[in-house]
Design brief:
The complex is a heterodimer. Chain A has helices at 18-25, 70-86, 105-121, 138-144, 162-169, 175-179, 181-188, 198-213, 243-249, 295-310, 328-332, 335-348, 363-368, 392-399, 401-406, 412-427, 429-435, 448-458, and strands spanning 32-36, 42-49, 52-59, 90-96, 127-136, 148-151, 156-158, 193-194, 257-259, 267-274, 277-284, 315-321, 353-362, 378-381, 386-388, 441-442. Chain A is an alpha/beta fold. In chain A, strand 5 (127-136), helix 4 (138-144) and strand 6 form a beta-alpha-beta unit. In chain A, the strands form two sheets. In chain A, strands 1, 2, 3, 4, 5, 6, 7 and 8 form an eight-stranded mixed sheet that branches. In chain A, strands 9, 10, 11, 12, 13, 14, 15 and 16 form an eight-stranded mixed sheet that branches. Chain A has two domains: 18-210, Alpha-Beta Complex (2-enoyl-CoA Hydratase, Chain A, domain 1); 218-385 and 439-458, 2-enoyl-CoA Hydratase, Chain A, domain 1 (Alpha-Beta Complex). By secondary structure, chain B is mostly beta strands. Chain B has strands at residues 4-7, 12-17, 24-25, 32-36, 39-43, 49-54, 61-62, 67-71. The interface between A and B is medium-sized, with 19 and 11 residues.
Chain lengths: 471, 72
């Protein structure tokens, strides 16, 4: 091609350009730049996310790798001041190597001021982080202090990068394996939502911001019934994946966001609309670890409950739990300390929160899963549900240990079954649970959606007054 | 393609093995049925593959992290 006659080509846009990223994140035509200091490393803007007013700031990865200096940190703090004054969510789009080395300690001081305002804003306005490139050092702890962290495929979070790790510990690891979507989505619990692309990460961020900021009202009359029991296996002992039930419960399965899907997958935590309003759903997943609670699951759920409570988001708790997972590993992993967080989170929560026991709820896990005693707004159970200290067979093995020991081994299973049936009558099942008031109402799976929405709508709409410490 | 080592999440008894060596399986298809915590828990792969090795049989007790089946 003749260079003299060719039409001049526009230079290809740099995908790291923060103005471009803000345009991509916010609804079309809503970007209003607040603060763009030349070379500060950060740009902030007002705009809308699925219609909801938000404030967004974005690293400028073209300037010193998006490092956080005094001017850039000032831009973030000013964006927070505006979001706090206007009561809107604030979203950070992160692609930054951390504090600016060239500026010295003054940059550390500035980064510390960002952490301080994030902490002051905690529980007051929703804070969402979208990590689209490397976020290291100070830029790692920024997202970690916020309510929800979304990571796109190229996102990386670490305190120190692969080179430092190699020189100090000799471990040979690349950035993706050290701090990419796989380790943070599955192992560390740092990241709540993992996406394939930057665009998808932005789409999730907009949906989340609008669910949290524009929560809407319950529409009790307009809530359609569905058969929530249809996704359950016939065999009551058979494990199943709880996701179809969660999808079926929400109004629209396409408009829900599951948090921490791969970390502690034995419990599901998700936000979406139910009966027209934003709610948080918590559900044991029997497909993983039999649905047992363990220490990461308790911690994940505790943080979710506290986040929803802080922002006035009502909760629906779907219970099918055999107990806490036994084991030396669990005890040493702090299942008592971390499990206590879940008891504390439910115990202090003031939002409307209803429980539905679908199949069974036993023992300590029964208490932890938003029981009546912890202050559930209302506890429902399906007609075949079991509420007990433990399964009947397990109970008679303890209660009738001596008697069973005397029985011939071949006959033991039959005697156990008989005793278990007797025990079931004595323990009283759901009727007894209703008498003592730990179950309020037995409801059919085909009438459950309306009953849950009505119970949530009747309860006073309150909001907890506390921050959302990243438990 | 890399091998997929399908391991148990938890201490359990092996109730049954649903596949044989050489069989092609889909993501989410039951490979092994475990019994633990009063539940029957199917073990399923996240991605499709061909069974190249089965390391357990019914009645075995497996530990957390123990490999049950290898897929290619």
């Amino acid at each position: 091609m003749n260079a003299l006659t060719a039409a001049p080509e526009a230079p290809a846009a740099d995908p790291r350009d923060p103005n471009l990223r803000l345009e991509n994140f916010l609804d079309d035509g809503t970007v209003e730049i607040i603060n763009e200091v030349e070379k500060s490393g950060f740009v902030s803007a007002r705009g809308r996310a699925n219609g909801a007013p938000v404030v967004v700031f974005c690293s400028d990865a073209r300037v010193q790798g998006g490092a956080m200096g005094v001017e850039g940190c000032k831009a973030i703090v000013e964006a927070y001041d505006i979001a706090l004054a206007e009561g809107t969510p604030i979203i950070g789009l992160w692609h930054s190597g951390g504090a600016r080395l060239a500026e010295g300690v003054v940059s550390l001081h500035a980064v510390g001021e960002v952490f301080a305002i994030m902490t002051r804003a905690s529980g007051k306005i929703p804070q969402i982080s979208v990590v689209i490139g490397a976020a290291a050092g100070g830029a790692a702890y920024g997202p970690a202090l916020t309510d929800v962290v979304i990571m796109a495929e190229k996102g990386r979070i670490f305190v120190t990068g692969p080179d430092v790790v190699r020189s100090v510990t000799g471990e040979n690891v690349d950035a993706a394996r050290l701090g990419g979507p796989e380790p943070h989505g599955r192992r560390s619990g740092v990241v709540h939502v993992v996406t394939e692309t930057e665009d998808e990460a932005f789409e999730r961020g907009r949906l989340l911001a609008s669910l949290m900021a524009d929560q809407r009202e319950f529409d009790v009359a307009g809530t359609e019934e569905r058969d929530l029991g249809e996704t359950f296996p016939e065999n009551a002992k058979r494990a199943y994946d709880v996701h179809p039930l969660v999808d079926n419960l929400f109004d629209d399965a396409a408009e829900i966001i599951e948090l921490h899907a791969k970390w502690a997958p034995n419990i599901v935590t998700a936000l979406g609309r139910f009966g027209g309003r934003t709610v948080g759903v918590i559900a044991n997943n029997p497909m993983r670890l039999g649905g047992c609670l363990d220490s990461p699951a308790a911690e994940k759920t505790a943080r979710f409950v506290r986040m929803c409570d802080a922002f006035g988001i009502p909760l629906v708790v779907l219970v099918d739990v055999p107990g806490y997972l036994p084991g030396v590993g669990q005890e040493w992993d702090g299942v008592v300390r971390r499990g206590a967080k879940l008891l504390h989170a439910f115990g202090e929560s003031v939002v409307p929160r209803v429980t539905l026991v679908t199949r069974k709820t036993y023992g300590g896990a029964y208490i932890a899963m938003n029981s009546r005693s912890l202050g559930a707004t209302k506890v429902f159970a399906w007609p075949s549900a079991e509420v007990a200290v433990m399964g009947h067979v397990a109970a008679v093995r303890i209660l009738h240990r001596r008697r069973l020991a005397e029985v011939e081994i071949d006959d033991r299973a039959r005697v156990e079954e008989e005793l278990a049936a007797e025990h079931a009558v004595l323990a009283g099942g759901l009727e007894r649970a209703q008498e003592i008031g730990v179950v309020d109402e037995v409801v059919e799976p085909t009438k459950t959606r309306g009953a849950l929405v009505a119970a949530l709508a009747e309860a006073p709409a309150r909001r907890g007054e506390h921050g959302n410490i990243p438990l | 393609m890399a091998a997929q080592h399908i391991a148990s999440d938890l201490v359990a008894n092996v109730h049954s093995v649903a596949v044989r060596v050489g069989q092609k399986v889909e993501a989410g298809e039951e490979l092994v049925l475990l019994e633990s915590m009063k539940m029957e828990i199917p073990v399923v792969p996240e991605e499709p593959g061909t069974v190249v090795e089965i390391r357990v049989e019914p009645g075995d007790v497996v530990q957390e992290g123990e490999v049950l089946v290898v897929l290619q």
